[in-house]
Design a protein that fits this description.
The chain is mostly helical. The chain is 50% helix and 12% strand. The chain has 3 domains: 48 residues; 76 residues, Tyrosine recombinase, N-terminal domain (DNA polymerase, domain 1); 176 residues, Intergrase catalytic core (hpI Integrase, Chain A, Orthogonal Bundle).
Length: 356
């Protein structure tokens, strides 16, 4: 007996099968019309009647890897590939010799629970989502009859890292600027540009000398450097392509630096920009010298935005300067700062109103 129903904009068909003493359900979704779903269900029913309905069984870790190599790996960047390789390792560790037909919801929930006892929730979600995507493919390809990843709950007993936004206060920022201005290190030059532009590490590392307009005192951010793949990529979003106005004195200083042949900030021995790790180490050394708050290179971007907002620069302009796709992104990221300023403005407003 088959059941056909609509889910969202597509149709889903269920066919119930008897395997020994067990009743199983074979499901397929994504049909654009009800007739397509019905046609598929009739075909499955006919296979069941003729006893030719089979599954393509195999070791789940091997099947996951084959799926990844064909459908995922060619389109992914290095960071995403790492997550798939991690997921494959998890499957291999937990189910080394399990066939895909032997894995059920209970086993999968046990995997999630155990993995979640040692990892933060975001990591657990990555593993769950990637296995779920593979299992949906396996169902569609008739490898198995049922999606055992449905209704599985993500679990973690490990706290996520604090999401508190870290940025330098104005006094700390002034000390850092003083130190990097007097340094000839390439990483120091990158730190200075990040402070005054609010650009991400990948955007600063991807700058070429052609991106510096010393006549108009601007920097053009039109690409990013992906260190893992060692190639230029598009910026994070379309709106990240932007021209940033820079202080005249900083551009005059930058005009005296020696750029590389390919990159504005280049290590002579490698012909590549300093790594994010190298820039972070240099930044940490400077901050420790002055007992300042320790932040990452990305924290310079937050520092840039926080400084401008504290000086009552319009948030729309700050958003454009950061290359955010929408001012609401800026509002959400820096909500705590804006709330603090709002409280100050409320106090000032009430003081004036009380004078009436």
């Amino acid at each position: 007996m088959a059941s056909i129903y609509k889910r969202g904009r597509t149709w889903t068909a269920n066919v119930f099968l008897i395997a020994g003493d067990t009743k199983k359900r074979k499901t397929k979704s994504g049909f654009t019309t009800k007739s397509e779903a019905n046609k598929w269900a009739i075909g499955i029913e006919n296979q069941k009647i003729n006893n030719v309905l089979t599954t393509k069984d195999g070791i789940i870790a091997d099947m996951f890897n084959d799926w990844y190599q064909v459908f995922k790996e060619p389109q992914l960047e290095t960071k995403s590939k790492t997550w798939y390789m991690t997921t494959h390792r998890v499957i291999s560790d937990y189910w080394p010799n399990k066939k895909i037909s032997e894995v059920d919801s209970k086993l999968f929930q046990e995997l999630i629970n155990d993995y979640g006892s040692k990892h933060v929730k975001s990591s657990v979600a990555h593993i769950k989502n990637m296995i779920s995507a593979f299992v949906r493919y396996a169902v569609d390809e008739d490898y198995i009859n049922k999606d055992f990843t449905r209704n599985i709950k993500t679990f973690s007993s490990v706290e996520n890292k604090s999401k508190e936004l870290k940025f330098l206060e104005e006094a700390e920022l002034e000390k850092l600027i003083s130190r990097v201005k007097n340094s000839d290190a390439t990483t120091s030059h990158m730190i200075l540009i990040a402070i005054y532009s609010g650009a991400r590490y990948s955007e600063v590392a991807g700058l070429t000398i052609q991106d510096f307009n010393f006549e108009n005192n601007t920097i053009s951010i039109n690409k990013s450097w992906q260190a893992e793949d060692r190639e230029f990529k598009a910026t994070k979003t379309k709106s990240s392509n932007r021209t940033v106005d820079m202080p005249k004195d900083i551009m005059k200083l930058a005009n005296g630096w020696t750029p590389g042949e390919r990159f504005a900030f280049e290590i002579t021995t490698t012909g590549l920009p300093p790594t994010n790790n190298a820039a972070n180490k240099q930044l940490r050394r400077y901050l420790e010298m002055d007992s300042s708050k320790l932040i990452t290179f990305h924290g310079l971007r937050h520092t840039h935005a926080s400084f401008l907002l504290s000086k009552d620069i319009a948030i729309q302009y700050v958003s454009e300067r950061l290359g955010h796709a929408d001012v609401n992104i800026t509002l959400s990221v820096y909500a705590h700062l804006l709330d603090k300023k709002r409280n100050i403005e409320t106090s000032k407003a009430l003081t004036e109103l009380n004078k009436l």
